[in-house]
User: Fold this.
Amino acid sequence: MRVLAACILTAALLAATVRGVDDLETLQKRFDQETDGVRKAKLLQRLGDAQFDSERNAGRSGDYVTVGLVMEKYRDNVRVALQALKKTHPDAERHVSGYRELEIHTGRGLREIRDVLLTMPEEYRPPMRLVEQDLVAMDNELLRLIFPRRPGEKPPLQQGASNPAKTEKPPEKHP
Assistant:
């Protein structure tokens, strides 16, 4: 009875492992084929989670080359999803669906990469820092697209408009 239970448990674990790898490949293929930016951004949530699982497994086994490759692919997927969103739904402030999900998941990706940077050996860190910088830049761009008008910020000057700070005379001093 115990042998049978052990065999069933082993088979279930093996199936789960194979399914996890297959899911990552299947999700990546679906992501690559998707043309709508919103659906692509929503697919990235599942794909990114699968990539994070793969990255964590590689990190536990000390395979930091694979960790780097997985996180670089995640960054590339975020970039592709952002470009697809900007192409199919350029007004992020009015059509926030997709942008919001992508920004939230990019934040999760940043936390994930920062955790990786703390644990990996120094020789593997420089490319990961570049990935982190790219994700920070895309996260900032997403926030600017979603919230273009921010309290306290001055709007950029229109071309042809004069800068009032430069044309005003300094106050005259009275004796």
Notes: Residues 16-21 have pLDDT under 50 and may be disordered. Residues 23-148 form one domain. The CA atoms of residues 31 and 130 lie 24 Å apart. The chain has one domain: 23-148.
